[in-house]
Every structure is written in structure tokens, then in C-alpha cells.
Design brief:
By secondary structure, the chain is an alpha+beta fold. It is built from nine helices and 23 strands. It is extended, with a radius of gyration of 33 Å.
């Protein structure tokens, strides 16, 4: 069959038309690309293909939420400049000898800023001193550079570096004083005119009150979290010393490793607690965080600044709260308050004064005692060697005993870290030195008979 020339001509014409259209589209796209920015193209696409025609909520519909945002921003702007990041180099136990890498459990709490580093040097030079690095937080409490933090943040530190929100860094911060019982410490940097925070009154806090935590979790410096006061008067599960505070604040504000030593503030931006530890099975925040209340942190910090350590008045007794359930057993009304003496230590001030097991201490020097924590704080605020009058109830009958307070052996043996007492004359080398003992000589694998000092 011979081809139809008219049909072939028609097909050829269509092909030319399609080719012209394709050339036109390609040219238009090239022109569009040459004269349109990526952002404009994106906006054009979203305008063309977005199916939503909804508008945001009007300002008058969310005025309360907007105002809350502004107030929280104001609070963060006020508090954050007075919070610092603390980088620590610490001298730890030698590996393979217990208490450090290669020696089993480090013995540090899960939120200790150093605990995350334990084990990373395992197997290296197992008999030499180890140095670890960690990160914590601190609170500037005076314009001349006094900073409150946790004792476990700076414990065994050989070098402390402090970084402010404005990026200023201070190397070689001085330890003014530490208190292991409350896990508090005060350090100082050489600066003036620093932003600082006032102390608040933790007594006034109630369950449900809003609080904010600011610190440096996981090296995410100056992080702000919000929560409420979940509880008061919490006692740590692992408290080994009955004299240790039993009045921690519990909060659900997220606190993680690195937050230790940072502030827990109320809605006025006042420090109502010093963040200290968390309960966790993972090492991270699980909803239960704890802070040292300001009623403890404030006086302890003041004492560390003036004296370098805390030596508390000591009765030598163990106590617990008088509860409504216990009160009838001691022939007291259910509404009675005080601290019940559960045991006395022979030869210590309490026993010498005539205190007995079962006595209920209701006042100290005329000031009412509402529970065991209040009695701890009240006796701790009195200097050893001072006489105090205890108002007690014995078998339901009131009586008064005069006790001359002693000092706990742990406090007597605690070193003073206040640099004001350090010698200022003579040549200053700027070194930390330790006598080269036989044990250290063995750790350093030095020849027998070697003598001298070791530079820490």
C-alpha cells in the first residue's frame, strides 16, 4: 500500500508544534530560575500548593499565655547572667586500687559531673594518679565574685575554671570553703560588679509553686527548665550521717548531670534551693530532682565565707519528728510538735546533761522546735562550747535542761579551705605539691630510695 502523503504531513506538523511548545516551556523555566531567589520560589510553591487557609489565634485570645511568656523571659534574663558554668579538673583515686577507673564503682552519685568520665581511661597506666574532668554549675551571690555550688562539683579539684553567660572565663577559681555534710561549697573569682542573685525563703514554698532551674546539663550551657515544688522535707535514701539535712526540696523541673550547684529560683528570681541530686535508674532526669533549701544553703554559705568551714554545735543524740501518731505514746496531744530523742551517745553533751531516750525536745533557748530538722539547724547555728536551754517533755511533764554543746568529730577533722588563712609571704611557685611517700613512689614506678615532692 502506498503511504498517504496528506496524513504524513499532518503528523509532521504536530511534531513541529509540540517541539515549539517544549522549547517555550524550557525557555520560561530558565527565565524563572534566573530571576527568582530560592526563598521566593519556595514561597511561591507553598502559596500554590498549600491547602490550609487557617489563620493564627488573635492576640486577644491568648493574652494570658502571651503575658506568661513575657514574664518567664524576664525571669530568665534576670537570673541567667548570675549562673556560671564550672569546669573542674579533679585528682581521683589511682586505677586498679578501688574507687576509680578499673577499681570498681566510682562511689560518686549518678548526677556527679565527674561520674560520666569514669572508665574512659581504663587500662592506661593503672598505677598512676588519675585526673578527671567534669562540668557543674554555680550561683553568683555577691558582686565581688563569691559563688555557691555543690561540694561534689569541686571536691578534689586541682583546677577550677568559671565561665559566665557573657563568655568571660576565669581560670584558677579559689575554693573558699566546703561542707561535706550539706554538700555545699563556696568558690571565688577575681572580679567586681558581677550580676548576682538574692536568697529567697524556702520556708514560704508550698507544693505546686512554680520554680525554675538554670544550669549546664550535658554541656548545654545556661539551660532553663520549669517545674513545680513536688514536695518538701525529703530525706535522701542513702543518707549515711543522721546529722545530714533531711529537708530537701523535690521538684519536677528537669535537672541532669551538669545542673549540680545551679539555682532553683522562685517566680521572683530568688534562690530558694541549690540543685543537688536526682533519683534515676538511667543517669538522666526521671522526674524527681532535689535541691538543698535556702534555709540551709544561706547560713552555711555565709559561714564558709567567713570561717572556711562549718563546725556545728553537737548534742550527740539521734532524733526523729514527733508525729500525731506518736504523740499519744509520749503522753502528748496529737497537735504537739518537737523532736523525739531515739538514742543518746554516752559521754557526749546530750547524755551528760541528762537527756534520755524518749524525751521530746520542744524548744531551744525559748524558740519552738517543730521537728528533727529544725533542731538540727538550731543546734548547728550555735557555736560549740555554748550553753543552750532545752525545753523538753518527759512522760508528758515539761522540764528544762541546760546543755553545753560540743562539736562532732567529723567537723573537728574537717580542713579549713579559706585562702585568707594561707601564708602570703615568701616565694610563691604557683604549684600544688605532695610529699613523695613510698605508696606514691610505687604508683609512679620510681626507683626505691627516690625522695622529693610530687607536682599535683
Amino acid at each position: 500500500m502506498r503511504p498517504n502523503r496528506q496524513q504524513n504531513g499532518s503528523i509532521s506538523g504536530r511534531a513541529v508544534a509540540v517541539l515549539i511548545i517544549l522549547i517555550g516551556v524550557a525557555g520560561a523555566m530558565a527565565f524563572y530560575r534566573a530571576h527568582t531567589t530560592p526563598r521566593a520560589a519556595w514561597l511561591g510553591l507553598t502559596s500554590t500548593f498549600s491547602g490550609s487557609n487557617a489563620s493564627p489565634l488573635a492576640a486577644n485570645q491568648i493574652s494570658a499565655l502571651s503575658e506568661l511568656d513575657r514574664e518567664q523571659e524576664t525571669l530568665a534574663d534576670r537570673v541567667a547572667p548570675a549562673v556560671v558554668a564550672i569546669n573542674v579538673v579533679a585528682h581521683t583515686a589511682p586505677a586498679g586500687r578501688g574507687g576509680g577507673p578499673g577499681g570498681g564503682d566510682s562511689g560518686l552519685p549518678p548526677d556527679n559531673p565527674l561520674s560520666q568520665f569514669f572508665g574512659q581511661f581504663g587500662g592506661q597506666m593503672p598505677h598512676r594518679p588519675q585526673f578527671e574532668q567534669g562540668l557543674g554549675s554555680g550561683i553568683i551571690i555577691s558582686p565581688d565574685g563569691y559563688i555557691v555550688t555543690n561540694n561534689h562539683v569541686v571536691q578534689d579539684a586541682t583546677n577550677i575554671q568559671v565561665t559566665l553567660l557573657d563568655k568571660r572565663t576565669f581560670v584558677g577559681a579559689k575554693i573558699i570553703g566546703t561542707d561535706t555534710l550539706t554538700d555545699l561549697a563556696v568558690i571565688k573569682i577575681d572580679a567586681t560588679g558581677l550580676p548576682n542573685l538574692p536568697w529567697g525563703d524556702s520556708h514560704l514554698l508550698k507544693q505546686g509553686d512554680n520554680v525554675f532551674a538554670i544550669g549546664n546539663p550535658f554541656q548545654l550551657n545556661f539551660t532553663v527548665t520549669r517545674g513545680i515544688i513536688s514536695g518538701k522535707g525529703r530525706i535522701p535514701r542513702d543518707r549515711s550521717d543522721a546529722r545530714a539535712p533531711g529537708d530537701y526540696l523535690q521538684t519536677d523541673a528537669a535537672i541532669n548531670p551538669g545542673n549540680s550547684g545551679g539555682p532553683l529560683v522562685d517566680i521572683r528570681g530568688e534562690v530558694v534551693g541549690v540543685n543537688a541530686f536526682i533519683y534515676t535508674s538511667t543517669g538522666s532526669f526521671s522526674g524527681e530532682a532535689f535541691a538543698i533549701p535556702s534555709e540551709i544553703a544561706k547560713p552555711v554559705s555565709a559561714t564558709l565565707i567567713t570561717k572556711g568551714k562549718v563546725v556545728r554545735g553537737y548534742l550527740g543524740i539521734t532524733i526523729e519528728d514527733l508525729t500525731p501518731d506518736l504523740a499519744p505514746f509520749f503522753k502528748l496531744p496529737p497537735a504537739a510538735t518537737g523532736a523525739v530523742v531515739t538514742s543518746t551517745t554516752p559521754g557526749e553533751p546530750g547524755a551528760k546533761s541528762g537527756l534520755r531516750e524518749g524525751d521530746v525536745i520542744e524548744s531551744l533557748d525559748g524558740n519552738k522546735i517543730n521537728g528533727a530538722t529544725e533542731l538540727q539547724l538550731a543546734t548547728g547555728a550555735v557555736s560549740p562550747g555554748s550553753p543552750v536551754k532545752l525545753g523538753i517533755s518527759r512522760d508528758g511533764q515539761p522540764t528544762t535542761l541546760t546543755v553545753t554543746l560540743g562539736s562532732a568529730p567529723q567537723d573537728e577533722n574537717q580542713p579549713t579551705a579559706n585562702p585568707k588563712t594561707a601564708p602570703t609571704g615568701g616565694v610563691q611557685l604557683g604549684l600544688n605539691l605532695e610529699t613523695l611517700t613510698p605508696d606514691i613512689r610505687d604508683q609512679l614506678q620510681l626507683p626505691e630510695g627516690t625522695t622529693g615532692v610530687m607536682i599535683e
